[in-house]
Specification:
two-stranded antiparallel sheet
């Protein structure tokens, strides 16, 4: 039933994203009331038995909070870390793609172009370069033209293409790690912004227990060699520490202290994966 519900929910989410992209410049989503939380069913779509988080939907939700967020402060440098194992390349790729969404929010064309080149490099290491080359070239071209809706759309397609090819190669663990670390990087940026200007309605965007439960199930299904990788083990343990922090308190809110702790944990994990 859960997989069926996710399949049914993806189409309206996609249509919603298209409608938002077509809104005239004079209409702002900030006029809508902030969402109380992110509904996992609206943030993911399913390919058979694999749940795929869609980072752009996190940022679509954030758009409703207004345009006074300092996204430029959240754009990370594009590192040149040399990974050794497929699962490490996958974790790097997930964080880099999510960093692309942050750079789009900041309208940082130079950083977006650097990210596009880095995605191509990492995709080559995972044998999925053909799947992303066209998308990344489109990302670079769109960023040069200031077409931010186009960049965001291509980033969505990039992650989806990577996942599809990895699944086709039976690289299930790497496919799931791309999604998990993409969520991680997006949550790091979100928790940082909320921490700098705490408001309960913003903090509630971090209330995603179903997502973390899904990730935990995915970790348990990974090959033993992947689970024993120190970076993967640290990632899993870090997400476990986040779980009690994203639960709503007796007052129905996530506290400012919890937001700060979430940001500390996610920042530490991202730094380990992509210093």
């Amino acid at each position: 039933m859960m997989m069926t519900r996710l399949r049914l929910m993806f189409l309206p989410v996609l249509l919603c994203a298209v409608v938002l992209a077509l809104l005239p410049a004079s209409v702002t989503v900030a006029q809508s009331p902030p969402p109380r939380n992110i509904d996992v069913s609206k943030l993911a779509h399913s390919e058979q038995d694999v749940v795929i988080p869609v980072p752009s939907e996190i940022f679509n939700a954030l758009d409703k909070l207004g345009n006074n967020l300092n996204w430029a402060s959240e754009v990370a440098p594009v590192s040149k870390k040399r990974a050794k194992k497929p699962e490490e390349f996958a974790m790097l790729l997930g964080t880099v793609i999510a960093n692309g969404f942050v750079a789009v929010e900041a309208k940082d064309a130079t950083r977006v172009q650097d990210i596009g080149h880095r995605v191509i490099e990492l995709a080559g290491a995972l044998n999925v370069q053909k799947a992303v080359l066209t998308h990344c070239n489109a990302i670079i071209d769109a960023s040069k033209n200031g077409d931010w809706a186009g960049v965001r759309a291509e980033l969505d397609r990039t992650q989806s293409s990577v996942r599809q090819v990895l699944e086709g190669q039976k690289s299930h663990d790497e496919s799931e790690l791309v999604s998990i670390t993409g969520w991680l990087r997006g949550t790091q940026a979100l928790s940082s912004l909320v921490n700098k200007d705490y408001k309960p309605d913003r903090a509630e965007l971090l209330h995603q227990p179903d997502m973390l439960n899904t990730f935990d199930s995915q970790f348990k299904g990974m090959k033993e060699s992947v689970q024993n990788n120190p970076e993967v083990r640290d990632l899993r343990e870090g997400l476990q520490k986040i779980k009690p922090l994203i639960i709503l308190g007796p007052d129905g809110q996530i506290s400012a202290k919890s937001v700060e702790q979430i940001n500390q944990i996610t920042s530490s994990l991202v730094k380990t994966i992509d210093p």
